[in-house]
Structures are given as C-alpha cells and as structure tokens.
From TrEMBL:
Record field: transmembrane: 21-48
GO cellular component: membrane
Localization of this protein: Membrane
Any matching Pfam family: LEA_2
Listed GO biological process terms: defense response to other organism
Signal peptide feature range: none
Annotated ranges, domain Late embryogenesis abundant protein LEA-2 subgroup: 84-184
Record organism: Sorghum bicolor
Keyword Acetylation: no
Keywords: Membrane, Transmembrane, Transmembrane helix
Membrane association type: Single-pass membrane protein
Official protein name in the record: Late embryogenesis abundant protein LEA-2 subgroup domain-containing protein
Biological classification of the source: Eukaryota, Viridiplantae, Streptophyta, Embryophyta, Tracheophyta
Length: 214
C-alpha cells in the first residue's frame, strides 16, 4: 500500500510538472510574440517614418446666402458654399486611398447648427503629393433656431460670416503595395471667415485644420 501511494504521488507530481512546463512555454511564446511584434513595428516606423497629413481650407465662397425673417420655429437658411480643401501628404512611402469624403458647414458655438453638406469623389493620393478638393455644399431651406437666424442676419448685414468646416472620410493607407485596415479620418477647420462681397474671395485667409484618425 505505501508503495502504491508513493506511485500515485509521483504520477500526480509528474502531471503537475508537465502542466507547469506547458504554461511556461505558452508564456514564453507570448512574450516572444509581443517582442517580435514590437520589433516589427519599430522597424516599420524607422523605414516608413509616417508623418501627419495636413489639411487646409484655401478657398471659401458663399453665394445666394439668405435667411427668412426670424419667426418662432420657422426660420430657414439658404446658401451655396464653394470650398477648396488642400490635402498635403508629405510621406515618402505612404499613399492614401479615400473611399468617400463628406463635408459639413456648421454655424454657431456649442451645439453648432448644420447649414450645408457636400461630398467629394473617391480618390487615391500618392506619396509626397498635395491634392485640392473642390466641394460644393448646399443649404436649401435649412431650419434654424430663432437666435441662430438673428445672428446669421447680423453677419449678413456686416458682410461676412464665420463658419466651421468638418471633413469626414474613410481611408486606407498603402505602403509598398500593402493596404492597411480602414480608418475614419476627421478634419475640423475653424473659424472659416467668408466675405460676402463678390471681390472678397481674393482676400480669403487660408485656415489650417486639426485632423484625427480613429
């Protein structure tokens, strides 16, 4: 009996030892995988050295801008915005594929009112390239609050209006023929001050944008 008990103890110990050894191998493999992934990411960064994409509103014109007299819950705005956004890709090895691009023109602080929307066609941007997107964003009988209507009419009377421009795009990055997963790219440009006189387009001041990728 003592010999049988000792044998069972040896078997139990041997089983535990094997499980510990397997666990150690798994942990070691995980650590090696993490280190290799980190090394690959470091090598990729050293080779590619990705730089942020720069976005700038270089032109903004508003035509046929008008607001109905502010009446409770019944004021509307109409306008056509002609925007040019310069997208500068300074990277030597990274090109960008834009699957779709949307634009919104917003007015007001805090919860800004959306005045107009527009879009740009899909395109591929090579490395070390600046692409200019010409966008037509239309506001057609857009309902605005009484306070917003009053402020818009004040700006129209003053001859210029300040808006925010938001760009939202779905993009992929391409390096040496390999495409990344899809990302959401957003750019926020503010304030974009648009003169309403016919000659004001020549004196427009370019507005740099803040961009984020998620």
């Amino acid at each position: 009996m003592p010999a049988a008990a000792a044998m069972r103890g040896d078997i139990t110990y041997s089983g535990r030892a094997r499980r510990v050894a397997v666990l150690r191998c798994l942990v070691a493999a995980l650590v090696v995988t993490i280190l290799l992934a980190g090394l690959a990411a470091l090598i990729f960064w050293l080779v590619v050295r990705p730089k942020p994409i720069d976005y700038t509103v270089t032109r903004a014109v508003a035509r046929h801008f008008n607001v109905t007299p502010p009446q409770p819950d019944d004021a509307t705005a109409n306008a056509t915005f002609y925007l040019t956004l310069a997208a500068n890709n300074p990277n030597r090895r990274v090109s960008i594929l834009y699957e779709w691009v949307e634009f919104r023109v917003l007015y007001g602080e805090g919860e800004a009112a959306q005045l107009a929307t527009g879009d740009a066609p899909a395109f591929a941007q090579p490395h070390r390239n600046e692409t200019r997107l010409d966008v037509r964003a239309v506001a057609r009988s857009v309902h605005v609050g009484e306070q917003t209507a009053r402020e818009l009419r004040h700006d129209l009377a003053a001859g210029q209006v300040g808006v925010d421009v938001r760009m939202h795009a779905r993009v992929q990055f391409k390096v040496a023929g390999v495409r990344s997963r899809r990302y959401d790219l957003q750019a926020f440009c503010s304030p974009v001050v648009i003169g309403l006189a016919p000659s004001s387009a020549r004196s427009f001041q370019s507005v740099p944008c803040d961009a984020a990728i998620s």
